[in-house]
Each structure stands twice: as C-alpha cells, then as structure tokens.
Design the sequence.
C-alpha cells in the first residue's frame, strides 16, 4: 500500500503519523511534540502546552485531550496509559 501522506509536510494541524506511549517526566520534553494525548485510565494530566503554559486537567477513561503538548509532567499526573499523537 502506498502512503498518501508521504509528500505532506509534518504539521501540528494535520493527521498524526504515530501514537507513542508517554512516561510523565518533570524535567524532559516529549521526544516529539504531541498533537493530542490519549489517556486510557481516568485521572489528572499535568502538561506543558507547546505555547509554554502548564495546565492540569481531569480526564475520564479513554479520553482524548486535543491540545498540542511539549511535556507531560509526573508531578500532578495521576492518569495512566497516556499516549502521544505525534507527527514525527
């Protein structure tokens, strides 16, 4: 099967190229910015947006948090099974 997206530039406004597991970390950004986060188990997600703002939100099971994210912080995050929708 050919890849219909192969000539498309990576964009925070386009479709995700992959979904990768996230280990919350207070010191390090994600390897690639996330278009959105997928959370398997409810709880709080504390994150730094690509705009540089730190936010904490409560999410339910199997939630999609549609905000471009640079880092998911360990401190304040109680949700588990977090995955990043990435463009790279």
Sequence:
């Amino acid at each position: 099967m050919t890849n219909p997206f192969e000539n498309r530039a990576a964009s925070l406004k386009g479709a995700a190229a992959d979904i990768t597991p996230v280990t919350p970390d207070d010191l390090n950004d994600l390897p690639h910015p996330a278009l959105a986060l997928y959370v398997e188990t409810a709880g709080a997600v504390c994150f730094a947006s690509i705009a540089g703002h730190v936010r904490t939100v409560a999410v339910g099971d199997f939630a999609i948090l549609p905000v471009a994210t640079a880092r998911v912080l360990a401190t304040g995050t109680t949700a588990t099974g977090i995955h990043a929708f990435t463009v790279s």
